[in-house]
Amino acid sequence: MLQFQKTAISAEDEAYLHLQREIRLGRYAPGQRLVPDVVAAEIGTSRMPVRGALRRLASEGLVEIRANRGAVVRGLNQQEMLEVFEMRSVLEGLATRNAVENMGPEHIRRLSNMLEQLDQGANEDLDWTAAHREFHEYLCSFCKQPRLLNQISELHSVVEPYMRLWAAQPGRVLRVRESHQELIDALQTRDAARCEAAMRQHVLNTVPALQAFLEQGG
Which residue intervals define the domain HTH gntR-type in the entry (predicted)? Predict the structure, then answer.
């Protein structure tokens, strides 16, 4: 059997996906140093692809390259968190505005089914943060604008570790159905301006509770 060696690009992609996933899931905490040799040993590659992956993650705001410490996981302060959510509200609002014209009843029904699973899984054994992100990205995907979708995905990745901690607070009750049903109701009107406004407000509604969580040391 022929065996093919990994190219430098494929090895870098593997390192990039590994690091991005671990940061999004909160397994690498803000401020944690990422040592290329250690990461390379974890995934069975050399350190050069890891260095390339770290540079890519730095360009996306997930990692910071420091002169004396090398690469560290980048954390967000409250002002930066607000900035990310304001950017999300504008970009996801635009995506929703452009998506509605490409959506049919079957797509809105699927969103309703996804909402049902989110609502049922809010207090059950469900990766709620991943399912919530899937809901948003499925809705936005109908805008059919790859550059816009890529920007939205990067912003989700930046805040995902904080969303996970926030959603996992003991005793927290997630307003899943009410807040997301407003989006579905807007989509059913097929009014592009109303859909954009609903998404923008939906994203911004998360900010006060998330900032309060950060103030408490979350």
Answer: 9-76
> pLDDT, tens digit, for every residue of 60-81?
888 999 887 789 998 888 889 8
Q: Indicate the pLDDT class of residue 123, thresholds 50, 70 and 90.
A: low
pTM of the model: 0.80
- Whole-number Å distance between alpha carbons of 56 and 53: 5
Q: Say how far apart CA 174 and CA 195 lie, in whole Å.
A: 22
Residue in this structure with the two tokens 């494929």, named with its chain if needed: 10
Tally of CB atoms within 10 A around 28: 21
Distance CA 116, CA 113 (A): 5
Helices (H), the chain: 8-24, 36-43, 47-59, 78-99, 105-121, 128-141, 146-167, 176-189, 192-204, 207-215
Can you give the pLDDT at residue 52?
Answer: 94
CATH number of 11-73: 1.10.10.10
Q: Token pair 């900035």 is at which residue?
A: 83
Give Rg (Cα) of the chain: 19
Q: Which CATH number fits domain 78-217: 1.10.10.10, 3.30.1490.190, 1.10.3720.10, 1.20.120.530?
A: 1.20.120.530
